[in-house]
Amino acid sequence: MNESRRNKAVGVSKRKWLWLLLPLMILLIGGSFYGYQTYKTNQHLAAAKKTLTTFVKALNENDFDALPQLMTENSLTDNAYDDAQLVEKYQAIYTGIGAENYTADDLTVTKSTDSQTYDFSYTASMSTSLGELTALTYKGTISVDGTDALIEWSPEMIFPSMSGQDKVSITVDTATRGEILDRNNQPLAENGTLYQLGIIPGELGTGDEKTANIKAIADQFDVTEETINTALSQSWVQDDYFVPLSIVDNTADLPTGASIQETTGRRYPLGEAAAQLIGYLGNVTAEDIESNPSLSSNSQIGRAGLEAAYDDTLRGENGGQITITDEEGTEKEVLLEKDRQDGADIQLTIDQEAQQIAFDALDGQAGATVVTEPKSGDLLVLASSPSYDPNLMTNGISQEAYDAYENDEKLPFISRFTTAYAPGSTFKTITAAIGLENSTIDPEQSMNISGLKWQKDSSWGDYYVTRVTDVASVNLQQALVYSDNIYMAQQTLAMGEDAFREGLSSLIFGEDLDLPFSMNAAQISNEDTFNSEILLADTGYGQGELLMNPIQQATTYSVFANQGKLVYPKLLLDAETKDKEVFKPDTIAQINNDLQAVVSDANGTAHTLASLGIPLAAKTGTAEIKDTQDEQGQENSFLFAFDSEDQGYLLLSMLDNREEGQSATKLGPDLLTYLAGKY
After folding, report:
1. Residue 663 known to be catalytic
2. 1 pLDDT more than 60
3. In the structure, what pLDDT confidence band is assigned to residue 15 with cuts at 50, 70 and 90?
């Protein structure tokens, strides 16, 4: 009896423990199930986020071929699309509106009530040919099956208000680019009628006939047969389409299959004569849009010269509409609307006729000419040679023609009027002015100089200052007439570095001029001190480490046409004239009298200009570039000249590595004659 009760008690005790363990077991099983479900949900959520990120990335990169694999097959079928049609739809819309730089913010993915789907949302923006499309709000669903996460696609994924077979259209109201005009309202960059050469494929014939016609077109218009065949192989080409090739001169004599159509584009009337000044246009690239989203993908921007420097002013902004329409073309929504803003014209101080004369005088030689109206600072001429044709650069240049420019040893793309050179003997005028100001130069006192070379003492080793003419007794005027290096070297040493540098510091050394060009400031020397008597002496006659570009030289020499006042250069006609006092009028009067003698004196280095019969003051210069004193090095030739009577114009012309028998002075007659008659 007692044993029975014990067994019964044990049974009750076991059942009690089972009841106590059962909730714990249920909790453990439920926890494991919940943990698994949470893990599974997190995995699905990560897969959904990855799909959405991949989708946005594909749109950003215009990789439309990657889209179908991100969509559920049923969603495409339900919307009457297949893979190819989906790709084609995105391609057509994005290309049509010039869509670039698709970006998405606030990407959110959350689990929906359906265990197999996840809801997403984000806000997108993109640049288009009409500007920025912003605040596009997208919502949708991603279905997850195992490790696969696919978007339930609908046309709303293109633009939120699209449905069915809706279309996106764009109308562009193209802004007119501002023109660049000279001081007399003559065009330097204008919008005009151009002639587009193209091919009508169906008119070329077939076989040998087609080959012969393509060759005839290539030969007549200086394009390669490969270029023509490449153009004809484009996917959109059809037999009756006009396939553009290049801008050409209009002609009625056309080979079979060729056609010419009128179009509107940029023209540069002076062509090569003003290329480095005016520049040219180029097509907008994806990189341009990335840095400036307001740019239109189907337009052009300035690539060089003033076209680039004043691009924002000249370009204006296109207007137009990007619209969603239904299948019948009925407007549903205007996505983007923008009013056209035409670019503004820019009027320069440049004289178109003088610019052409100056360029022609350079005759393909490497060099530059700068002309100013010294009292106002107006830049009348900025010519650089050799040059390139900006019309070709803007409207279509062949690779062969571009390579010819690139491989030209005379570097036609560089702007020599902004390139720094040692100014040579033209700078003796400044050294003389500083010496007169600090009274270290007495214009009446003559210096006895023997021979064609001189050195201060034996500490100079084998270095000598040389001169061209052996004149035994030299005063200031003779030093300028004969361009005597030894006289100037001795006078510079006599005044000393401190006085010389103090005089130079009153000019424009180290200053950035207010001009739309990239150029280094004029420099006196590489360091803040010469640390060498030889370098001090060399600088006195315009060599050493002295560096100035032709604009800076003309600006510096403006003191001689303004009674000692330096007038800063300006390129925009309505810009304010700025100046500063540098030298005393008496100092300038003395030197100007001597510079007139450089022309009138039979021994003067610019005496050939006397035959022009116009009032001139001038100084010539030659700067030598060589590694050792005894070698024959490169010689740059300079001419500084101005109107000695009315100071109406000032010229600085130079030849870079002048050819034998050539000089900057020989370039001057035609231009000086024109300037004397006009200014």
Report:
1. no
2. no
3. low
